[in-house]
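Ticket #4471: structure output looks truncated?

Reporter: J.K.
Steps to reproduce: submitted the chain below (280 residues) through the standard prediction queue, then opened the result file.
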Amino acid sequence: MNFLDMLSAAERQNGSLLCVGLDPEPTKFPAGLKGDANKIYDFCARIVDATADLVSSYKPQIAYFAAHRAEGQLERLMEHMRRVAPHVPIILDAKRGDIGSTAEQYAKEAFERYGADAVTLSPFMGWDSVAPYLKYHGKGAFLLCRTSNPGGDDLQNQRLASVEGQPLLYEHVARLAQGPWNLNGQLGLVVGATYPAEIERVRALAPTLPLLIPGVGAQGGDAAATVKAGWRGQDGVSTGTVIVNSSRAVLYASSGDDFEAAARRVALQTRDQLQAAKPT
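Returned output as attached by the reporter:
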């Protein structure tokens, strides 16, 4: 089963558009785990166990593991997720972007070492920095398109005078991903939840691509507006789905011993809110 099939199946089975981002920060861990980087796996695995029937995907952010020399714990976590939630795809949030020969190594890291189902990429260096990932049959790749950080305007919102119609850079990325770069139907786009009007614009340019949308929850993105802007479908079946990521709001819903129950409660509330926002 390829990434898009897994995503569709998880969306149906769990009735969910929610992606839980796994961004472990030991200083924010609950009592008993707090401050201990050796407990990253334990914390994340318990979050997964509490939410596995509520999500359409998980998104571990590699920097939060590498910063604590916890790549081995990430490998264990990937194995744990495949064991307890084999129907839920895993998006490795790495935001890689480098020349072809180096990209081949990054692709090997994501798909062979960690066994991810998809990865996030920066398209800034062009097609040859993306192509090595697409050689992995059935795997997905999400290109940064219109990100939620304020500095995204510095490049993404600039017009390309050399391209017909002078599109904004993020619009050009969306067109490339929907069109000539999407050789095997493996691409998706990253669009921030803080820009619902631009989510709608990206959806118009890329009507069938999955959109990975961070920024809901702690970053202030509106869940209902995000779904209305980006999800497309009929009779509850998506033709252009969204993957709405929430990280801190779920992970750190409680600093006490009830953190798993609190994480599940917030994930359930968010899942239901996203489902209710689907256009009819």
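Triage note (M.O.): checked the attachment and the full token line is present. The first strand starts at residue 18 and ends at 22.
Status: closed, working as intended.
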